[in-house]
């Protein structure tokens, strides 16, 4: 899985920006992209949910989603810290697909909203996203989305929501969380100077 993520990040940073929208006009290339995305477990679950067309909600693990994506974790910490300091009882912020590091989430959830609320020093975190394919969204893969949108217009599939199981943690514990990437970057040997 880590090798696949490394390949994906390389492609995402060096290959995808050079792709023109004409690349996805060919059905073979669209199918190839869909096949690649389905190598990851969560996107495979997402595609099966979408193609079966039952409009069933998809449930994800909020804690894993947050902790496995450095930008999401850092945004959550920052937002919670500000809300907690100001004495607010709840808050939310939005995440775009560009903020997602882990391809398992990048290709299955896209953009979403993180909600949190406080009970004393305990914070309850969850996520929510309504997934709808648009006829011509402003994105490089709009031809894939248009192709899938035609399935929806022929009543072969339905929109659905994606939500995260509630994750409860103390505010202090939240601030101590680090992503796997952050842990790797820490020095192995710490010297007292």
Main sheet record: 6 strands, mixed
> What portion of residues is helical?
40-55%
Number of helices: 9
Rg value: 19 Å
How many domain units? 1
Sequence-ordered SSE layout with sheet pairings:
Layout (H helix, E strand, L loop, with lengths): L1 H14 L11 H11 L3 H12 L5 E4 H6 L2 H16 L4 E6 L7 H4 L5 E8 L2 E10 L10 H12 L6 E6 L1 E4 H6 L3 H6 L8
Parallel strand pairs: 1-5
Antiparallel strand pairs: 2-3, 3-4, 4-5, 4-6
Would you mind describing this structure in some detail?
The protein has 193 residues and is α+β, with helices and mostly antiparallel strands. It has one domain. The protein is 45% helix and 20% strand. The protein contains 9 helices and 6 strands, in the order αααβααβαββαββαα. Strands 1, 2, 3, 4, 5 and 6 form a 6-stranded mixed beta sheet that branches. Strand 3 and strand 4 form a beta hairpin.
């Amino acid at each position: 899985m880590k090798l696949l993520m490394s390949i994906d990040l390389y492609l995402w940073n060096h290959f995808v920006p050079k792709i023109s929208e004409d690349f996805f006009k060919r059905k073979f290339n669209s199918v190839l992209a869909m096949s690649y995305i389905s190598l990851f477990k969560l996107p495979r679950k997402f595609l099966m949910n979408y193609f079966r067309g039952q409009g069933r909600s998809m449930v994800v693990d909020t804690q894993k989603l947050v902790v496995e994506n450095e930008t999401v974790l850092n945004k959550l910490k920052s937002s919670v810290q500000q809300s907690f300091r100001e004495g607010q009882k709840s808050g939310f912020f939005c995440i775009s697909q560009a903020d997602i590091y882990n391809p398992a989430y990048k290709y299955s959830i896209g953009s979403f909203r993180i909600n949190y609320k406080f009970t004393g020093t305990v914070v309850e975190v969850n996520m929510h996203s309504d997934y709808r394919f648009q006829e011509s969204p402003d994105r490089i893969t709009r031809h894939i989305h248009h192709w899938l949108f035609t399935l929806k217009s022929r009543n072969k599939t339905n929109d659905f929501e994606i939500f995260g199981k509630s994750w409860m943690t103390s505010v202090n514990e939240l601030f101590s969380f680090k992503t796997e990437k952050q842990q790797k970057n820490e020095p192995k040997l710490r010297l007292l100077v």
